Amino acid sequence: ALRVYQAGSFFSVITPGHVGEVVKISFLKRDLGIQNRIGLASVIMDRLLEFIGNNLFWASLWIAILVMLLWNLFSNALMGITQLEPMDVTRRINNDHATLYDIRSESDFNAGHIIHSVNIPEKDIPERKKEFEKYKNKPLILYCQTGSVATRIVRQLKTEGFEDISCLKGGILNWQRANLPLTRNKK
């Protein structure tokens, strides 16, 4: 049975617990609908804190996974890295005269690449970094197979002062899914 007691501006609600124990909940006096929600939220918080206390390892593991997931989802936005959809890339090429760099291997580049893109394989970037320097203040778009390597390189170049640099979201695979053309001609 549910019993409610009022003491000043507080209500106390006593409900039977799971194994015959008594759970006492106190909350500030407000309108009746909010009071019921506050009581329920209080019970949930009490049970959650009890669970965390009893299962510290699993709760810590869950929090660590959640933090890593959030970092993975939002780190690019926090660092100011722009990932462009294929249609946005074509718009940047046509309107802003953006330069495209394909950072896949030479064999992947020869198998098919976006027209007018320049190939600098990821492993050659440290030696050929000067080629990027002339585009430091101009639109530059990097792409790889899936987008993950290009994002890492964009992050690195952004810290070195490149202003208008972005990458193709999802890489060349996303470009192909959008049914956009590839060429096999070397450029």
Description:
The protein is α/β, with parallel strands linked by helices. The chain has 7 helices and 8 strands, in the order βββααβαβαβαβαβα. The strands form 2 sheets. The chain has a 5-stranded parallel β-sheet with strand order 4-8-7-5-6. A 3-stranded antiparallel β-sheet has the order 1-2-3, covered by helices on one side. α1 crosses α2. The protein is elongated and about 65 Å long. About 10% of the residues have low confidence.
List keywords for this structure.
single chain; 187 residues; alpha/beta; five-stranded parallel sheet; three-stranded antiparallel sheet; 8 strands; 46% helix
* Outline: elongated
**What's the tally of helices?**
7
Proportion in helices = 40-55%
**Fraction in beta strands:** 15-25%
The rounded distance between the terminal residues' Cα atoms is: 80 Å
Radius of gyration from the alpha-carbon trace, in angstroms: 28 Å
Record the strand order, biggest sheet. 4-8-7-5-6
Number of strands: 8
Uncertain ranges: 18-34
Please state the structural category.
alpha/beta
The biggest beta sheet, please?
5 strands, parallel
